[in-house]
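One-letter codes give the sequence; each number marks local geometry. A record appears below:


***
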Amino acid sequence: MKKQREKTRLFTVALVLVVLLSLFLTSCGKTEGADTAAGDNGSGAAEQKVYTVDDFKDAKISSVVGSLESEYISKNFPDAELLEYNNAADALTALRTKKVDFFATQSTMLDIYAKETGDVINVGYKICPTEAGFGIRKGEDELVQAINSVIREYKENGKMEEILSHWADVSNYVVEDIPENTTGETIVVGTSGEFEPINFYIDNKLVGVDVEMIGNILYDLGYQVKYECMAFGALMPALESGKIDIIACDLYITDERKESIDFSDVYYTDYSSFAIYNETASTGFLSGLKDGLYSNLIKEARYMMILDGLKMTAALAIAAGIFGTLLGILLCFMDRSRKRVLKGIKKVYSAIIDGTPMVVILMIVCYVILGKVDASGVVIGMLAFGMVFGNDVCSAIENGLDNIDKGQYEAITALGYPKRRGFKEIILPQLMRNFLPGYRSSFTSMVKATAIAGYVAIQDLTKAGDIIRSRTFDAFIPLIIVAAIYFVIIWLITLLIQYAEKGESRKRKDREVRL
């Protein structure tokens, strides 16, 4: 008990030190937005050099995976080192932490980053014009034609220009309520919620050009709308598998993408550019800490996203824990069965689970096994994480049984105990003693694995942190908050299972005294 308390104190002190160090580094890296070299509009055109092709051809460049910028850089700068990230916040963080020389994305977004952070400069080098359309699954010709007819109508009557104007001034967005139908077929729209001003969150509400445009279009067509937020790289698989019906995520129209999906007419145009890191005077530690906590937690009640994500993570852990435990018991029975078919099925199952990455299993469950089923995030997570956890539970049970001396079974027969009573009073206590440590390790690993759930539109704790980072452009504070919450969760689970282990130990000693 004393050793455990000492370990807990050490872990707590280490966590506090990591948090303070990260906050210190973050605050030192933050800049005074009003005094940046970027000038009034954040572009920095008046004070920076003119960039040419030679500056990019051998550089390290970050971008979002699957984006038009990545495609352009690969074709036009083959000698450049391209680092692709799942979202713009991570790609921007790579620039701000000097892992790359340039960050490539839409010019409008770069101007927003420059204005909000003060340490990013849009160099103004136009690398490719971008035309965005809504992505629609092949074969849905009627839906494509219907959406295009409304887009043309919006262009003619000025509504498209009006919607775009709502998001033109980054310092004064106009958020209007989108009308909703209460009857009619439901269209599931996939987006990321991480690209300001295209699709992002204000006051925990999904807004932006994409959201207002597709929301109004589908309303005029008589559809109900349901939004699913997921990683940008997961949108295409989700569309092709039928989990979503439309992609509304600033999806650039390219010939390669046209081979896989259909596109609506263009509704938004821009161009892509590069950004560089602007090293200017940093703010003080306390000032940076105060501003960081305010912008990441208090502003727009963003702490509510953390709480909602925590609830989802807890639901996933509990559901997967129950399902996985039951599945592990079943697998153990199959493995110890006298029927070769059952033993063979179990061995094949374990081999597949052990040899497949968790994120791949998650995607298979979401897009293949439940591809045509309207399943909730909890159900998807329960199956995916429970399948892996069940395999680990089976291994823990078998390890517990194998460590019981065969003489214990002979003692049951010698004492004349019925099999059930002998198992309950002699075998089960020893099994629990051997089983619980492995179960504890597997359960905590499963809880930590739920951090990838956001990849398939499950709004868990980590996904909530990603969404906050996409608004604040803060590389560390949201991650440290999420890490601290996970630390507390794992610590509590460990204490709970250790308490169960000690309780079982006390019961065993009481039985030995009675004997």
Notes: Residues 184 and 223 are 5 Å apart (CA to CA).
